[in-house]
Amino acid sequence: MRQRINNSNNDSLLEKTLKTCKRAFGYLFFFGFIISILTISTSVYALQVFDRVLSSGSIDTLIALTFVMFGFLVALGLLQIIRAFILMGVSDFLNQKLSDTLLHVSISNSAVFNNMQGGQNLRDLGAIKGFLTGSGVNSLIDAPWCILYIIAIFFIHPTLCIMVILSAILLLILAYYNEKTTKPILDKASEINIKGAGELELSTRNAEVIEAMGMRLNIVKNWNEINKQVNELQTQASKKSSVVTNITKTLRMFIYVLSTAVGAYLVLGNKMSPGGIIAASILSGKALAPFDAAMGIWKQVINTRKSYNRLNSVMKNTLVRQEAMKLPEPKGNLSIEKIAYISPKTKQTIIKGINIQIKAGEIIGIIGPSGAGKTTFAKIISGIWKCTTGIVRLDGADIYTWNRDDITNHLGYLPQDIELFNGTVKDNIARMDKEADPNKVVEAAQDAFVHDLILHLQKGYETDIGIGGSELSAGQRQRIALARAFYNNPKLIILDEPNSNLDQNGDIALAKAIINAKKKSSTIIVISHRPSILKIVDKLLVIHEGEAKIFGNRDEVLSKLQKNQKQIGGNNNG
């Protein structure tokens, strides 16, 4: 069984978390109203100074107005600080509620779909948090209250009010035009840039191959072509955006000059007081500020909206395990009941109705040609992937729904592609548990016959292995990963090509480790192309084109395979 990470009314966790913040956003909206009122007081102050203080020459009135204004400004500053703190609190709340879940989801999706979107999910969360703590969200909150500034200008004079409204419309049209003309270009540039970043990462990973086979010039040439396309598109978008931006700046100066001229004309016609020019200038600047900033805010809103939609889609559509309660320690009996697997990407059937029983303490070897489905089979029986039909049971319980926090005590897994984590040898063997018992770490290393190898490293178990184990050889990485699989004496151990990077001594150590694990009543499943490891297995499973062609005692299976090869050879000779 799998379930979506959303609640009964189809809200994702992201939507649900944001709804929890509704009261905070309500306060922000209300503070925006108060801040707008207090901001209007600055223009009222200017109006009173010009029309009342200068005409009457009253110093007392000037002092009284100034002290009142100081009080308003203190209140304005405090409200803006409180608003900033509320937004930071919302950002922290989102981080606390979502970051862990996003990492869980990202790891789960990467395991099932082999994608690498975990970083993108966390970057999207960072983009939302950055928007909440930036100036963009404040402009959006203040935008509706522009109507207060426009109303205040109307009371000074309707003509100036009409000019401000027309100016706001013009600024919005320019912002929309800028977005409409640059968005397709920037989207294409972003798509190519992501591709280029992927190419660069692959080049770094395969640096040895590039150097060995003289591919560097070709790689650089290909990357330069991608980089050139990105630069051309970004330059094209920048040129268009620059034209609109400078037109907008010119328009703002034109509006200022025109409003001043109109204000002066109205004063000369005794239709407005001289202080009205200053007051209207301040108010029009505040009224047009969100529209003036619309170009920059628009991009922020669009990008944040994209991040929100991506995250919402991930959290609404991701299927997660419906894990069972913690179960007693298993004995290691594995029941594989008519399992089939269809790839969610290609829709190709990879595993076709495998139905076998494996007893606790048995060593099972799995062989077959490349692309037969052996690695897929390993991922299914380890509970990484869920089979499309059928079920895999560990001591009667569905291994896929086994509590994943508890399965680490019962399952050891060595993947075909060895991946170690940044840290020490000890950290990696202990499965990155910083509080692991050192005795258990040493025991796992001894069980994997890698203890002496580790002691010969520069700092023994405390040796930093570098990024992904870059300070170790391929064989050392594989043997330390084997010790990780044996950590905590798991009852089920699945090894996918465990000797692909081992020399003869490593092969011997691997065989000893597997035999030793059997003595501890562990069930071991070994996938290998090397015949040397098959000498120690109890049973053999032959997988071909996703089907279990032969399963039985090792000698019987090998005998059948030899007969088949002889028949094929005889037919070919005939």
Description:
The chain is of the alpha/beta class and 574 residues long. Among the domains are: 8-156; 334-573, P-loop containing nucleotide triphosphate hydrolases (Rossmann fold, 3-Layer(aba) Sandwich). 63% of the residues lie in helices and 11% in strands. It has a six-stranded mixed sheet, with helices on both faces. Strand 11 (539-544) and strand 12 form a beta hairpin. Helix 4 (118-133) crosses helix 11 (294-317) and helix 7 packs antiparallel against helix 9. The relative contact order is 0.08. The model is unreliable at 1-8 (pLDDT under 50).
Task: Label this structure with key terms.
single chain, 574 residues, alpha/beta, Rossmann fold, six-stranded mixed β-sheet, four-stranded antiparallel β-sheet, 19 helices, 12 strands, 63% helix, elongated, disordered N terminus
